[in-house]
Design goal:
51% helix; 7 helices; two-stranded antiparallel ribbon; Antitoxin SocA-like Panacea domain-containing protein
Length: 166
């Protein structure tokens, strides 16, 4: 996959995460770090498919509990397995707009209603995470990156199949 440089004011994974925290707070359904990681992963994957570009530059690693962005994990690690209690105002997420906001809102509509354990199981059944974890035991920690190419290919195929193609 041709990787284009991100623009100077490009989003970071934490920006995407904060948008989802904002949405979860608005819905009155606090979000955990584990669920947040999966939503950010799916946002990157579907941006590659639908917009043909990366949403953020940080790598996504194939961790035991599914795809994870290390910087985002570290940011919200103090909350442990509990809900992230952070107030995020509309002003805090205003840099997300237009096409990206629509994408994230769509991700929230599809995946936001699912719980963290279901999302973990879902990512564990999908090829990008499985490929990155190849050769590792289920409980074995890993810093292996989930490739953008594998994400784009897998979810493009999934989209085409859902449209009755292929």
């Amino acid at each position: 996959m041709k990787t284009t440089k991100l623009p100077p004011k490009a989003l970071k994974a934490v920006d995407v995460g904060r948008y989802f925290i904002h949405l979860s707070n608005e819905a009155g359904k606090p979000i955990t770090n584990k669920k947040l990681q999966k939503l950010v992963y799916y946002s990157q994957a579907w941006s590659l498919v639908l917009n043909d570009k990366k949403l953020f530059g940080e790598p996504i690693e194939a961790w035991v509990h599914g795809p994870a962005v290390r910087s985002l994990y570290v940011q919200y690690k103090p909350f442990g397995f509990g809900p992230i209690r952070e107030t995020i105002s509309v002003q805090d997420v205003k840099k997300i707009s237009g096409k990206v906001k629509k994408l994230l809102d769509d991700i929230w509509q599809v995946y936001g209603k699912l719980d963290a354990s279901y999302l973990e199981m879902l990512t564990h059944s999908e090829q990008p995470w499985l490929t990155a974890r190849d050769g590792l035991q289920g409980h074995e920690n890993s810093e292996k990156e989930i490739s953008l190419d594998s994400m784009k290919s897998f979810y493009t195929d999934k989209l085409q199949k859902s449209k009755g193609r292929k």
